[in-house]
Amino acid sequence: MTEDRPASPYQPEELVRQDGVGVPDPFMRLWTPHRMAYIEGENKPTSAEAGSGCPFCRLPSQPDADALIVHRGEAAYAVLNLYPYNPGHLMVVPYRHVADYTELSGAEVADVATLTQQAMQAVRTVSGAHGFNIGMNQGEIAGAGIAAHLHQHVVPRWAGDTNFMPAIAHTKVLPQLLSDTRALLAKSWP
């Protein structure tokens, strides 16, 4: 261990050495370069128009495994969030390109509700989620990343799932690949 810093039980000496990369410090780093795509707005629509520029319009034309679609309903589909808050975070998306919940037809509202219930059942079967955060961000000002195409988030929660990583390090540790999560949920869909 270097003389200017005490040994840490959480960080072996070989991980602390940072020769040539700046001033050594006691922090470990979890590199998540895939998050740069989200931060830089990659694949984010440049207009509010429907069509191939909207990922939620484009996804249903792809194979389920490639698009991370877990289940297809009559008027909506369930898809894993490409940038999840928690493992199993998925979204229920109407096929029709509408921005506001009040624009949905009765059949679309019913399908979004049914798929949300089924998503909760599938996630509980696969992972034993203790609870869920379910909701929509209506409009860019309300936090919608893709405001032009309505989507409802279904975020599984577990006791103690908010630990020091997201609270202090602004980092979420996801223990499973999205393709593996998609396969488990699709297999367990009611």
UniProtKB/TrEMBL annotation:
GO MF annotations, alphabetized: ATP:ADP adenylyltransferase activity; nucleotide binding
UniProt-annotated binding residues for substrate: 81, 153
Domain HIT: 55-164
Pfam families for the chain: HIT (PF01230)
Entries under Gene3D superfamilies matching the protein: HIT-like
EC number: 2.7.7.53
Location of the motif Histidine triad motif: 149-153
Coiled coil: none
Residues at the active site: 151
Protein name: ATP adenylyltransferase
Organism of provenance: Kribbella solani
